Amino acid sequence: MTWDKILNFTLQLTSNALTTLQLFFMTLLFALPLGLLTAVIRMSRIRPVSYIMRGYLLVMRGTPLMLQLIFFMYGVKPAIENLLFNAFGASVTFSRLQVAIFSFTLNYAAYFAEIYRGGIESIPAGQREAANVLGFSKKQTFFRIILPQVVRKILPPMGNEFMTLVKDTALARIIGVVEITSYAEKMQAFYVSVLPVVIAGIFYLLMNAVVSRCFAAAEKRLGYYS
Amino acid sequence: MKVLQATDIQKSFGKNPVLRGISFDISQGEVLSIIGPSGSGKSTLLRCLTLLERIDSGYIAYEDLVMAKNDAASGKAVYSPAPVLQQIRRKFGLVFQNFNLFPHFSVLRNITEAPIHVAGKSRDEAEKEAMALLDKVGLAEKANAYPCELSGGQQQRVAIARALAMHPDILFFDEPTSALDPELTGEILKVIRNLAEEKMTMIIVTHEMAFARDVSDRVIFMDEGVIVEQGDPKQVIENPQSERTKAFLSRFSQR
Q1: CATH number of the domain where residue A220 is located
Q2: Could you tell me if A136 lies within 8 Å of chain B, comparing CB atoms?
Q3: Is this structure's pTM higher than 0.90?
Q4: CA-based nearest distance B51→chain A, Å
Q5: Measured between alpha carbons, how far is residue A108 from residues A65, A209, B27 in Å?
Q6: Is the CB of A128 inside 8 Å of chain B's CB atoms?
Q7: DSSP string of B172-226?
Q8: In what helix (H) or strand (E) does residue B69 lie, and over which residues does it extend?
Q9: Which helix (H) or strand (E) is B65 found in, with range?
């Protein structure tokens, strides 16, 4: 590959990187709150409710994300589109990226849920008791006393998940989302050169360097106790 | 009217009875110490009185607010509805053995959080009052420190200030010095002594016999879930009547 081709490829890859970033941020936007909700339901004392959540966690964490993508793309997506058309006469089509965001959200929420749960269970009972005696409501206790401490505690495992998510976005190519890896793969065949793949790797590396720095900064900022 | 009245409290954990018919009351301005061996039910009693545990049967009331009373038919304790319990929570404060300060808040915010968000005070007012309380427990200069930067004794003094900030009618102490080394217990006992002089109503579960004798108006000796002996502190601690109390206290004086 010549320098201008490399430059050209890199520019094109940057625009594809926007799709990767979109998938990354949208997944976090939905999966972080959904994971918290899942964790809270999972810890419910109502047995059947807790068991339903355990089933969801088992399926999501026990099967490959790639299979889930294919299932949602070719099974769930057309089914929902048909349903919307038959029930409301609405002809809606979901984009490949939307399906990917949906699948990633369900999958990552499951992992986040278990991290949240570990964090919540690690907070000493005395914290709840102190809040209870002071008259805080259950909601206040959770959001003012428990959750801020949980966030501090789960930063290291969350950092892992965020970095894994950056790399997992490459799986979206299996349902035809054009992102960094799929484009690099195509160009590798076109130029018969591994250089596009190496440059794609550098993109992921840079993104994860940023993620890692952000977590280090957050840990330092919240390091008021340990 | 009695600040707190408890009658025939029974509580089991599974098949293991922990409180077997405890009755007592406390008047305004009285300081009551509860002593007794580990596992005698002292802490469980305190936890029942502060709504951290539920009793199986018996009667508990704060002034005219009934927390729980026996259902006539079943003989089991029935608790008052949640709004009443919330009102009752405003009547008492609890100081824990291991402080339980909120580690993610500064000292000042540990004290102001409940007055602002539970009692609905303005931030200015709550902070002003918190500073006065910190001054009272000798920690005004630590207002912006975090709990982890404080010694155990300092943390416990903050915990006392935090409880006082809600203006309880009665303050409970659950072995407030047991997690501290002997050098630090003195500073806590001094704070409690000052509160006693201000006629704060207090119930103190403690292993500090000399302190219980000097500061309280009345001492209760508990063992195996019952009150074995109670009365004037000097009487109970220096001249106990029951064999069980004698045996317990003799082990203390030997040390």
Answers
A1: 1.10.3720.10
A2: yes
A3: no
A4: 8
A5: 9, 21, 57
A6: no
A7: EEESTTTTS-HHHHHHHHHHHHHHHHTT-EEEEE-S-HHHHHHH-SEEEEEETTE
A8: strand B65-70
A9: strand B65-70
Q: Dump pLDDT digits (tens) for A68-109.
A: 999 999 999 999 999 999 998 888 899 999 999 999 999 999
ipTM of predicted complex: 0.92
What does the alpha-carbon distance between residue B248 and residue B245 come to, in Å, rounded to a whole number? 5
- In eight-state DSSP terms, residue B41 is S
Contact A114, A57 (CB under 8 A): yes
List pLDDT tens digits, range A116-148: 999 999 999 999 999 999 999 999 999 999 999
Q: How many domains does chain A have?
A: 1
**Amino acid in position B15:** K
For chain A, what is the mean pLDDT?
94
**What is the model's pLDDT at position A225?**
59
- Is B56 strand, coil or helix? coil
What is the pLDDT confidence band of residue A204, given thresholds at 50, 70 and 90? Answer: very high
Tell me the mean pLDDT per 10 residues along chain B, length 255. Answer: 93 94 95 93 96 96 95 93 95 96 96 96 96 95 94 95 97 93 88 94 94 93 94 91 89 64
Nearest-Cα residue of chain B relative to residue A131:
B114
Q: Give the separation between CA B132 and CA A76, rounded to whole angstroms.
A: 63
Asked whether the beta carbons of residue B104 and residue A130 sit closer than 8 angstroms, the reply is: no
Assess whether pLDDT exceeds 90 at residue A2: no
SS3 of residue B157 by DSSP: helix
Q: With contacts defined as CB-CB under 8 Å, which chain A residues touch B98?
A: 126
Of A127, A134, A148, the CB nearest to B114: A134
Residue range of the domain that includes A78: 3-225
